[in-house]
Structures are given as C-alpha cells and as structure tokens.
TrEMBL record:
The lineage of its organism: Eukaryota, Fungi, Fungi incertae sedis, Zoopagomycota, Kickxellomycotina. Pfam families: Cu-oxidase, Cu-oxidase_2, Cu-oxidase_3. PANTHER family: IRON TRANSPORT MULTICOPPER OXIDASE FET3, MULTI-COPPER OXIDASE. Belongs to the multicopper oxidase family. This is Ferroxidase fet3. Keywords: Copper, Metal-binding, Oxidoreductase. GO terms for molecular function: copper ion binding; oxidoreductase activity. It comes from the Eukaryota.
Length: 460
C-alpha cells in the first residue's frame, strides 16, 4: 500500500519499523481512500507467509463498477509439506546445485486444489475473475479454456482491457479479468490452475502441477474440454498492458542499475544480491534512521552497506535497470508504490544456457503500473517511478528463499520530507523498545558514520 506519510504501517521489519514480538500487538491503519483493487496481507518475517500467514485483501470501488455482473475470487497458494525453517535447514545443507526435495501442493481459496469447488456461469453474464497469487516461490497459470479473458487490473491498478487466453502470475502478483459467459448452456467447462517454476527440475505429476475445477452452466450438460495446449495459449504479459488512466511514460532524470548476483556460500547456500552485498538487517529500522539523522539522512552510508540503500531526492524521476544474468526467474516487488514497467529484454546469455531468449519489448505510450514484475532468467527489466513524496521502499524478490538469502534493497526517498511530515506513533516506538531495539541513529544506532556493532556485510 502507498502508506503516504504513514510508512510505519508498511510492515517490513527493520525497514519501516520493528516486528510484532511474540505476545505483542500492533494496529495497522490502512487508508482505503488511496487505492482500490486486489492486494494481500502477509507476514514479512522469515518465511511466515510460506507457513500460512497470508490472506487476500481487496479494496472495492465505492460503487459497483459498470462492466460486469459478478465477481469470482481465486487466491492461490503453494503449500509445502515442511515448515519454512525445516526447508531452509535442508537447503543450507545441500551441496551446490542441489535444491531441497520440495514439490509443493496447491491451495485454491484456502483448500486442497484437488477438492476445489465448482463455479457457476449464467449464460451471457460478465464475471470479474480476480486472481491473487499469494505464492512463496512458484508461478501460477489460470485459464478457463473455451473462454477469452479481458485483463482489466494488475496489482491494484486499472488497465485498458487486454484480451488473453489466460493469466500468468509470479509470487505476489494480482490480476483481474472479465470473462463473458457463453450464451448457450449446452456445455460445462473447466477452469485450470497450473503451478510451475523454472528453478526446480520438472517431475511428472509434481511439477508442473495441474488442477481444475468445474465451470457449471447446466448441471445436466456434458463438459467440453477444448484441445488447446498451454504452449498455444496467449498469456497475459504485463509489458503488453496499458494503464487505464493514460498516464504517460515518466521522464528519467537518473538511472540506477541493479545486477542480480548469485553465489553459493559455505555449505552451498545460494545467496542473491542486487549488486554487491547480500541484504542483512540493520540494528535500527531504516525509517527511524532517515527520521533522526538530519541532513546526513541523504548520505546512503548511514544506512549501512548491507541495507543496500539508495537515497533519491524529491523531484527526481528514477529508472531502475534490473539485470538478471542468472538462471532463475524472480518477481521484483517494490513496497509503497507502483512503478511503470517500460522495457523487458534479453541479456544475451540465454542461448548459451539452452534457453530461448526473452523478446525485447518496450511499453506503449501509457505503460502499465505494477508493484511486482516478473524478471525472467537471462533478461532485464526497466522500471520507472517519480519521487513526488517522501517514502521508504523495500525492494525485494518475492520468492521467500531469495529474499531471505539477500535479494533486497532499500530506497530512501526524500528523507527531508519524511522528517517534516512523519510523526511516529507511540505504538511503533513501543514495539521496538520491547525488543531492546534503538529507535534513533544510524544503522548501528550510533552517531554520524560510526557503524561499530553492525554485523559485517556479506559481499558477493
Ligand atoms: Cu528471486
């Protein structure tokens, strides 16, 4: 959520505040007047979302929008048979190149994907199908073969309708699409949910995993299953979308380059970074450093090298080029905003790895805005956003293991405006005090550039 001047409600531990310690409580205040659309709530601390602390969060328009009759929600989860902690322990003991014996099942609307309930279509009616990927690691595809989908929303932002055969969602992504029911009720159909990923070896029946549920027009009718393979279908690709409000391409006054690096440390533990350091928690939440360091808050050094902090100023218009020369797909999520996805392209090393290169594509004049973009292996994306207020934005891959193993960065935007407008609620301060966490000073809780006591940054 944007959390304009209420960054302390963002919920990213040690970035915008302290975590909720066992036995403690904290009240989040969400201004529902700033955004509408599909979101989700999830624990942002060490795999909690993967262990189940995740729920859809939908802000409806004040008035029922014209354009559809009913809404049908699907929220999708990858569901492991181990806890995140056990999985990470297994991960950490493996030799390089080996992934844990982890093939998840799928929950559709909170229940076993094999037991999924049917949905009902009334001939001629228009349905808004809302799909929320609350995934921790895997990608999802959703389709209703025999029906086209008009995508009208991505990550809470309204889009000009884009016709596709199905939706493709990385961890954290959300889409809405209009599906018009056929006029005839001669047949029933199926909706399909597929779980897939490029980071684990395919295994028959386990990956990719296919689930389906009935689309009932008439309970006495036979089910029609159109013979179209997933490879023949057109999947929703964010770079093909145009934003509904026709906001033009933002200008660029400064380009920042992040190159994702991957290296195995110790017992083959893969670490990931944007640029040179694996993210590691600071000793003072980054927001509190920005609020208490005066003019030094503009100097990225005070946030510590392992917070990978980039300070940007009011009035700047930022482009981030994110290179992924590695073998794994990621979803790049930025908190507190949506950004324009302006370009997607190949890095040139795909063929050497026996993979087809990602096609070079630039956005149209009205680029789609998102908060979570897919970044495929051997490719890059360019995203843009204006600095029109103060905010602290955690940037991270939305795959839990990647995020917990370093793939995060921090954007501190206009700290002068944060200092002017933010008044920390006592509750946010108490949450830190309860855990003995300092609420002022640099990343180490010291003055100026003295980072004594901060754990060493892990260089990659
Ligand atoms: Cu990732």
């Amino acid at each position: 959520m944007y959390q304009i001047n209420t960054d302390y409600y963002d919920g990213a531990p040690m970035v915008t505040g302290c975590s909720i310690a066992p036995g403690a409580s904290f009240t989040y205040v969400i201004n529902t007047g700033q955004q509408v659309g599909s979101f989700w709530i999830h624990g942002h601390y060490y795999g909690h979302l993967e262990d189940g602390l995740r729920a859809p969060f939908i802000i409806h328009e004040k008035q029922h929008p014209i354009g559809y009759d009913e809404e049908i929600l699907f929220y999708l989860e990858d569901w492991a048979q181990q806890t995140f902690e056990d999985r990470m322990a297994e991960y950490d003991q493996k030799t390089p190149g080996h992934l844990p014996s982890f093939y998840p099942t799928v929950l559709i609307n909170g229940i076993d994907g094999n037991l999924t309930r049917p949905i009902t279509f009334v001939p001629g009616k228009k349905y808004r199908i809302r799909v929320i990927s609350m995934s921790a690691s895997f990608w999802f595809r959703f389709s209703i073969p025999g029906h086209k989908m008009q995508v009208i929303e991505a990550d809470g932002i309204a889009a000009k309708p884009l016709e596709v055969d199905g939706l493709d969602l990385g961890p954290g992504q959300r889409r809405s699409a209009i599906v018009t029911a056929h006029n005839s009720h001669a047949f029933n159909y199926l909706y399909n949910v597929t779980l897939y990923a490029n980071f684990a070896n395919p295994f028959p029946g386990l990956l990719p995993r296919h689930y389906s549920g009935s689309v009932i027009y008439n309970s006495a009718a036979p089910t029609k299953v159109p013979t179209i393979s997933q490879g023949q279908m057109v999947w929703c690709n964010a770079i093909d979308m145009q934003v509904q409000d026709q906001s033009p391409l933002y200008p660029v006054t400064r380009q920042i380059v992040w190159t994702i690096k991957e290296r195995s440390l110790g017992h083959g533990i893969p670490y990931y970074t944007f640029n040179d350091f694996a993210y590691n928690q600071t000793k003072v939440p980054t927001l509190f450093t920005a609020l208490t360091m005066g003019k030094l808050a503009f100097n990225s050094s005070v946030y510590g090298p392992q917070s990978q902090t980039f300070v940007v100023k009011y009035g700047e218009s930022i482009e981030i080029l994110i290179n992924n020369p590695g073998t794994k797909d990621h979803t790049i999520h930025l908190h507190m905003m949506d950004y324009q996805l302006v370009e997607v392209g190949p890095l040139g090393n795909a063929e050497a790895n026996n993979k087809p290169p990602v096609k070079l594509q630039k956005s149209g004049p009205y680029p789609m805005r998102l908060d979570s973009a897919t970044l495929r292996a051997f490719s890059y994306i360019k995203i843009r956003f204006p600095v029109n207020r103060g905010f602290i934005a955690l940037a991270h891959c939305h795959l839990e293991t990647h995020m917990e193993h370093g793939l995060r960065a921090t954007i501190v935007a206009a700290p002068d405006l944060l200092q002017k407008h933010i008044r920390l609620p006592q509750e946010a301060i108490d949450l830190c005090k309860l855990q003995g966490i300092s609420v002022s000073g640099n990343a180490a809780g010291n003055q100026r550039f003295d980072l004594d006591g901060l754990p060493p940054a892990i260089p990659i």
